[in-house]
Design goal:
Structural class: alpha+beta
Order of helices and strands: HHHHHHHEEEEEEEHEEHHHH
Distance between the termini: 27 Å
CATH architecture of the largest domain: Up-down Bundle
Radius of gyration: 21 Å
CATH topology of the largest domain: Butyryl-CoA Dehydrogenase, subunit A, domain 3
Largest sheet: 4 strands, antiparallel
Number of helices: 12
Helix content: 40-55%
């Protein structure tokens, strides 16, 4: 494994880090206040200014490997940038590298036709609109994508869509204009050829956002996660992606990069939690000593450093394999980091909260929200159980 980064990547790392130091960290409280002032579900004026600066500086669409529309970085080269972005709640969007837009853009780039790219990919890449991914359903265990029971039925030159989706991230954002919807086009086909994916404009008649879902009490505004009802929604046949029965194939192609992006950002979040833990330990006294002078605190800091380094190296290995042998051959490593990274980060954040005492679980520090968001990653893009089963099967296959 060659983890020696090119000068181009090193330059991006330096530029992204400097941009965040100047534009994000000093303004995080103001960004949060503007969300409150705007009634939560709003466009954040200061963030739009920051995004314009990032775009002008050429720090835009840094993901999207194997495409001339991105920055020309491989998965491995993008890894340290995503890690930096994971340190701030607002960073990914600042560089137009936030989920679910990144995954949706990759889907349209890889599987969409030229008309679909012109209508939807172009404004997404420009940051003019945002998007939603509608796959998970409340009525079925969506960890098994073949369970999806929403329907996409052809009627002449249109498809009629029915179903209820939830955890449709990004639906609360007023700039969300397009969704990628997964549903069944042929329930009698082979198990993995029943589903299709289609582009559904969010202003189409028949779409009803029933409610916004909270995560441990956090609404994640203005991004948010919605339960959405689709009732007799009609879209042109031309909106179908790749072809009928190709939805499962698209889902697998989308989730590989999406999972590794999450894990890269997770390492960055853990680094920020460790930084907070160290600073708190050096400035806080209990029983006549600084917390940093206590062995239990030093042990927690040491374990955090070990765990972060292990997770980072496993993530980099997975990224390197995706670049060199492809997502299919790297599926065990991708599954491994999807289990390991959130577990690691939750442990680091939990210990950071302990060092902060009561302050660690309230709004004065970012740790409580960080913990809530990271906990969802043990479910998002496939629960731990699915990944562990795949890792086990692939490991046993070596002996057969």
């Amino acid at each position: 494994m060659d983890f020696e980064y090119s000068q181009k990547t090193k330059d991006y790392v330096e530029r992204v880090g400097a941009f965040m130091d100047k534009n994000l960290y000093p303004n995080e409280e103001e960004l949060e206040q503007q969300i409150e002032d705007g009634g939560r579900w709003c466009v954040i004026p200061l963030l739009e200014e920051i995004k314009a600066r990032a775009k002008a500086d050429g720090l835009w669409n840094l993901f999207l490997p194997d495409s001339g529309r991105g920055a020309g970085l491989s998965n491995l080269e993008y890894a340290p940038l995503a890690e930096l972005m994971g340190r701030s709640h607002f960073a990914s969007e600042s560089f137009n590298c936030s989920a679910p837009d990144t995954g949706n853009m990759e889907v349209i780039e890889r599987y969409g036709n030229e008309e679909q790219k012109a209508e939807w990919l172009a404004p997404l890449l420009e940051g003019e609109i945002r998007s939603v991914f509608c796959m998970t359903e409340p009525a079925v265990a969506s960890s098994d994508a073949t369970n999806i029971c929403s329907t996409i039925v052809r009627d002449g030159d249109e498809y009629v869509i029915n179903g209820t989706k939830w955890w449709s991230s990004g639906a609360g954002d007023p700039r969300a204009k397009i969704s990628i919807f997964m549903g069944k086009t042929d329930p009698d086909a082979a198990r993995h050829q029943q589903q299709s994916m289609i582009l559904v404009p969010l202003d189409a008649p028949g779409i009803n956002i029933k409610r916004m879902l909270s995560v441990f009490g956090y609404d994640d505004a203005p991004h948010g996660h919605a339960e959405i009802e689709f009732k007799d929604v009609r879209v042109p046949v031309a909106n179908l992606l790749l072809g009928e029965g190709r939805g499962f194939e698209i889902a697998q192609g989308r989730l590989g990069p999406g999972r590794i992006h999450h894990c890269m950002r997770t390492v960055g979040a853990a680094e920020r939690a460790l930084d907070a833990m160290c600073r708190r330990a050096l400035e806080r006294k209990a029983f006549g000593r600084y917390l940093a002078e206590m062995g239990v605190t030093r042990a927690r800091i040491a374990e955090a450093r070990i765990d972060i380094e292990q997770a980072r190296l496993l993530t980099l290995k997975a990224a390197w394999l995706m670049d060199t042998v492809g997502n299919k051959e790297a599926r065990s490593e991708i599954a491994q980091i999807k289990v390991a990274a959130p577990r690691m980060a939750l442990k680091v954040v939990d210990n950071a909260m302990q060092v902060h005492g009561g302050a660690g679980v309230c709004q004065d520090f970012n740790l409580a929200r960080l913990y809530a968001g990271l906990r969802t990653l043990r479910l998002a893009d496939g629960p731990d159980e699915v990944h562990l089963d795949q890792i086990g099967r692939l490991e046993l296959k070596k002996y057969l």
